[in-house]
Structures are given as C-alpha cells and as structure tokens.
Write a structure and sequence with these properties.
Elements (H helix, E strand, L loop, with lengths): L2 H4 L6 E2 L6 E2 L3 E3 L4 H14 L3 E3 L15 E3 L7 E5 L4 E5 L4 H10 L2 E2 L11 H6 L16 E7 L5 E5 L4 H7 L8 E8 L1 E2 L2 E10 H6 L1 H7 L2 E6 L5 E10 L8 H25 L4 H11 L3 E5 L1 H5 L7 E9 L3 H14 L8 E6 L14 E9 L5 H13 L3 E2 L9 H7 L3 H11 L8 H7 L2
Parallel strand pairs: 3-5, 4-5
Antiparallel strand pairs: 1-2, 6-7, 7-11, 8-12, 9-10, 9-11, 13-15, 13-16, 14-15, 14-18, 17-19, 17-20, 18-19
Helix pairs in contact: 8-9, 11-12, 13-15
C-alpha cells in the first residue's frame, strides 16, 4: 500500500458556495499518474464511483460523490515550457493563480482568462470556465493537448493528432471521461492590457452593445437590478507603459467597495430584503470611472470574497440584449429583490463539443444571489427566459436542464456521449448530476 492510500478521509466535502455537500467513502491525493491509476483500479474493484474535485468553485454537484473523491493537490506544477511551440504543460491540480504568476515570471501569459483564478487548471477547463472576448475564447479553447487517465487505468495523451476524437470532446469533459492529469495550453509573450471601467446607463449599453463588442478586444458589463445603471469594462492591448491602480485607490475599489462594503450590503439585504432597491441604487453609483494598465492576469481577474450562488446561460449573441431586457422587465414587475448585479460577457464560436460557445458566437448572462438567500424563484424565472432563446447553461453553475434539453441545443451532444460510452461504459465517473445532464 502506498502512502497515498493512507490519506483517506470520510469528512464531508463542500463546495465554495456551500450549496453542495457530499460525504465520500474515501478521499485520496495521488502524487503521480501511476498512483492515480492504481486508485481508479482499486475503486472499481470496491464498487466505488469516482469523482475528481478541485477547489469546489462549481455551483453544481459535478464533483460530488459518495464513493472515491480524488483531490489533485499533489499533482501540481509546470512540467514543461516549450518556447518553440509556445505552450506550457501543467499538472492538472495547479491553481490558475499559481500558473499565471509562474508564466509571468517567464515572460509569458495565457491569451484570455476568467475573472477569478482560484480554480485548478483541470477544474476550470473541464467545466468551460471563460472570460469575455471578441476574438479570444475560453481557457479550454487554448488547450493544445491533455493527459487523461481512463476508467481502466490507461493513460491517454490527446491532441488534434493523437486520439483526436477524445481531444474533440475532453477539453470540456465534466469529469465524465476520466481524470485529467496534465494539460498543455497555448501561451504567448506577456503583454499589457489597458482596462477602462466606466458607469453607463442600461439603455445606452444595450443600444450600443454590438458596437461596444466590435470595438473592444474584451468587453463586459454589469447591470444593477432595480436601477437603470450599469458598470462597463473594456480591456484592450496596450503598448504601455504599465500603470497599475494606485495602492490606495485600488484597495478602495477592489477590496473596500467590491468586497468589504458589498459584503455588509448583501448581509443587510438578506436580513431586510425591502432595503435592496435602495442599496442597489447606492452601490451602482459607488464605483467611479477609472483606467489602468497592467499584465493580463492582473487586469482580467479580481478578488471575489463575497460568497454567492450563480446561474449563467450562453445565448446566441444576437439574442443577448433582448433576453437581458426581458430579465429586467421580469424583475421590475415581480416581488423579487435582487442584491447582486447581472453580468454580461461574450465569446467567439469554438470547436469543442460541449462548449457553451460550440459552433456559435455567444453572449453570457449570469445572475447571482448572496449565499444563504433563497434563489429558486429568481433563477427559475431567469432560466425560463434563457431557454426560450436556446440558452446553454454553464456546466458548473446552477441549472435544471436535462439530457433531453441539452441534446437539442448541442448539435455534437451525441459525439460526446459516444466517446463517454467507449471510455467509461460502466460509469465509474458517474454521479447524479452527470446522469441528469448527460443521461445514463
């Protein structure tokens, strides 16, 4: 018995938001691919289902199991940087924040990324984590190869030239095909981004949405429910020089207002919902316009210390404004009190079977509520609007869709399930969430 198997636990597993808990029969932290393969073989012999779990930043139960929980905290670090191919190969359990800082030290960067970087590389890519971009897509779309340990303990290297059928679906694999142990991503020389953050009225943002997307490499905005106010963010490459936010002003915006004061406001709103519209009006006016220039991960990402639950849908980009207006009208005529802003981002089409942007240029509408606030009525009403527009739910965020619906909005859904049937016919990696969204 290796040292890995001595590291077992029966304590509950809980995700970041606290809305999903599970009690695995045992938990292991393999320190090598061989140890992982042995753990899978042993679980299969013992009749245990298996799920890998990163940092728990998914809001769904995609990583929950009552069998064997694989923790990748010992599978971390950079294996190789190839400056000829301009790729980095990284162990699957490496947190994105460690990857970003390590790449920056080497004068390199990912092209695009999401707005937080606490997740593991494999967890982020397996659920389709994305940022916003006119031309540059999700982190998963930047993958050039991956290493996957399958249910029978085989180690597959997958790329466009090696096991290409698996590669076509495994870049966003939901943990349903095997356990990813390493990922090779495209990188480029580190560059500077200038961020321009600016308040803007809802009616102007929605009227000019297509123009704002076309004119900026990365555009996103937040609408504050119960108000006509938005905050916009435009990120574009810059020749420099670097001009990061001042230490004091940056702390005021990113920590005091966006986290500290917002935490207090959310707590008050949860306790006294009637105060939320007034708080929203104040919050939407608290953030002032600012411009700063820095390396990518310091511009793309922000600290998120206020915990929440989230639902996000990807729509055909041309449907985004209409759908958002419908959400606003729904909130205005309902008794709902919504304390969190609604986030809107975009992505170009990509070629990954279960990517939310698969085969179509997309816009994302994300709704949030403070942790502990009843969210079902709000999310259900928003989901009804999103599905009427052919929306695809983010795989790691709350939704009620099933395989019957999803097979209708993903033209390559059957391609994914066929590979799953071949790699995991006995459903070693199944759980209730995957049975709902993929079928069984």
């Amino acid at each position: 018995m290796t040292e890995t198997y001595a590291r077992t636990a029966t304590s509950p597993w809980r995700n970041w938001a606290g809305n999903v808990t599970a009690r695995p029969a045992r938990t292991v932290s393999p320190a090598s691919v061989d140890e992982l393969a042995e753990a899978l073989r042993r679980a299969s012999e013992d009749g245990l289902r298996v799920k890998p779990a990163g940092t728990g930043h998914s809001f769904t139960a995609t990583a929950a199991t009552d069998g064997l929980l694989i923790r990748p905290d010992l599978l971390t670090g950079i294996r190789e940087i190839d400056r000829t191919a301009m790729t980095v190969t990284v162990e699957a359990g490496t947190p994105l924040k460690r990857l970003n800082t390590a790449l920056a030290r080497e004068g390199l960067s990912l092209t695009n990324m999401g707005d937080i970087m606490e997740q593991t590389v494999a967890g982020a890519t397996s659920t389709g984590t994305h940022g916003t971009g006119r031309d540059s897509a999700s982190i998963s779309a930047q993958i050039r190869a991956l290493e996957l340990v399958t249910a029978d303990g085989r180690v597959l290297t997958c790329s466009k030239t090696e096991n290409p059928d698996v590669f076509a679906v495994a870049r966003i694999g939901l943990g349903a095909l095997g356990v990813i142990t390493a990922i090779t991503c495209a990188v480029e020389p580190v560059f500077l981004l200038t961020a321009r953050e600016e308040p803007m009225p809802f009616d102007k943002v929605t009227a000019d949405f297509d123009q704002l997307v076309a004119e900026n490499e990365h555009f996103e905005f937040y609408w504050f429910p119960h108000t006509g106010n938005c905050n916009t963010k435009r990120n574009n490459r810059s020749a420099g020089p670097a001009a990061p936010p001042g230490r004091v002003s940056g702390w005021i915006e990113d920590e005091l207002l966006s986290n500290g004061v917002f935490q207090v406001a959310c707590s008050l709103g949860r306790a006294v919902p009637a105060t939320i519209p007034s708080i929203a009006k104040l919050s939407s006016r608290a953030l002032s316009a600012r411009t700063y220039t820095d390396i990518p991960y310091k511009v793309f990402t922000s600290p998120r210390r206020v915990r929440f639950v989230e639902m996000e849908y990807a729509l055909p980009r041309e449907a985004a404004v209409e759908a958002l207006r419908e959400v606003r009208a729904m909130v205005d005529r309902s008794p709902l009190r919504v304390s969190f802003p609604v986030e809107v981002r975009t992505a170009p089409a990509d070629d990954i079977a279960l990517s939310t942007a698969s085969g179509r240029e997309s816009a994302y509408i994300a709704v949030h509520l403070y942790r502990g606030t009843p969210y079902q009525a709000y999310f259900t009403a928003v989901e009804r609007i999103m599905t009427a527009h052919g929306g695809r739910p983010h795989w790691g965020k709350i939704n009620t869709r099933d395989a019957a619906y999803l097979s209708g909005v993903y033209p390559r859904f059957g391609e994914f399930t066929a590979v799953r049937d071949r790699l995991d016919p006995d459903r070693l990696f199944a759980n209730d969430y995957l049975r709902r969204v993929l079928g069984d």
